[in-house]
Each structure stands twice: as structure tokens, then as C-alpha cells.
Amino acid sequence: MLTVRNGRGLGVWEPFKDLRRIQNEMDQLFTLSWPKAQRDLTDGDAAWRPSLEVYEEPDKIVVKAEIPGIKKEDFAISLMDDILIIKGERKFEHEEKKENYLLFERSYGSFHRTLQLPKPVKADAVKAEYKDGILEIQLPKAEESKTREVKVTVK
User: So what's the pLDDT on residue 62?
Assistant: First the structure.
């Protein structure tokens, strides 16, 4: 936040407020375009949103989330049909409030990310590893979703 002078006197300028609003509107648009994503699964007004990296390999879908500064017990991963849910909380560890901060950009509080998976996965074979602030989730594809090549004989 920054205090600025505007036509009505002094006001508070929050440069990321409009970006968060636009991001929430885009999330709602994508959520509405996937009917399986229910309203209670939207990212909503979470305090912050971990960045995700999602890619597909021949036999699995890999999701990486940046969640530094969080203990394993402070986040949870679940799968509902073909929707991956990652939620948790980054706790503010300093009890005293300092007025002499020059810059404070780290976000704290709860987060909730949902991701519509592009293909069915084997829910009972999902693996996750958390190392150096990166959560990596490996979701093996279900047999019917794996791409396979079939040779067709022409007569």
C-alpha cells in the first residue's frame, strides 16, 4: 500500500488490488466453463495463490506448486473426480508488528487452488513430494486415457 494524493485528498493506492480482481474474474470464468467444478471449489478470496506449473507426460500429469515457508502439516491435497484440490495456510510467524518495515511483500494466510485435470487419473496411485518449497504431485493417467498407437491393416 502507498498513500497518494488524489483529487479528493490523500488516499491509499493498492497496485495489486485491480490485478487480484481481474484474476478472480478470470477464475470464475474458467470455473463456469467446467461444469464439474462446483462453487465451493473455487479459489475465492484466498489471501494468496501459489503459482502452479502443470505438464503432461505419456503416463502421468505432473503438477508443481510453489509454497515456500509452509510445513507439510499446513497444507492438504485431495482429488474429487477429476479436480485436484490443494489448500493450506502460510502462518505469520512474527508476533510483534514493526512499523519500520521498508517493504513487506510476502503474503500470509490461507490458500485454495483447484485444477481441472485434462484426463482421468488413477486416484489411488497419486504421489506427492515436498522439497525446498516446491510441492510436486504426480498423477498417473488411467489406462483409458493413455495415448496408444494401433496399427491398422489395410486390405
Answer: 96
- Count other Cβ atoms within 10 Å, centred on residue 30: 14
Q: Which whole-number Å values give the CA distances from 137 to 61, 63, 84, 132, 154, in the listed order?
A: 8, 5, 10, 14, 42
**Rounded to an integer, what distance in angstroms lies between the CA atom of residue 100 and that of residue 141?**
51
Taking residue 72's Cβ as centre, other Cβ atoms within 10 Å add up to 10
Q: Are strands 9-13 and 2-6 parallel, antiparallel or unpaired?
A: antiparallel
Q: How many beta carbons lie within 10 A of that of residue 41, not counting itself? A: 19
pLDDT single digits (tens) 116-150: 998 899 999 999 999 999 999 999 999 875 566 77
pLDDT at 69 (0 to 100): 84
Nearest of 123, 111, 114 to residue 41 by alpha carbon:
114
d(CA 151, CA 80): 35
Alpha carbon distance 63, 56 (integer Å): 9
